[in-house]
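Let's practice the habit of predicting before peeking. Look at the sequence and jot down your guess about where helices and strands might fall. Then scroll down.
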Amino acid sequence: SRTDILKYKLWLECGKVCPYTNRSISCAQLFGEHPEFEIEDIIPYSRCLDDSFMNKTLCESKLNREKGKQTPAEFFQGRESDYQQLKDRIRHLLHYHKSKRFYPDAR
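Done guessing? Here is the structure:
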């Protein structure tokens, strides 16, 4: 399906690792009957109306529900150490223009 192709591309882009948790992602966890990882909008679509590949990554399903309609900076507010680890990870995993979306001034 189109969604599976997108998941696959995002999986390769992030080195088969969840950018948020650094947890390795297997094919079964991504495409299985009950996938543990899903596509997520880095900046919530409802806030930026950007449905492009540049605004998407993979995220653990549970964490994505917790994040809700927050940006990464908002979600990690008060957990600076976790947020710094995320920023360090994405700097090495993702394209520069995509990684900028994880920062507080991203729109």
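How did you do? The helical segments are 2-13, 27-31, 45-48, 61-67, 72-75, 80-93, 96-99.
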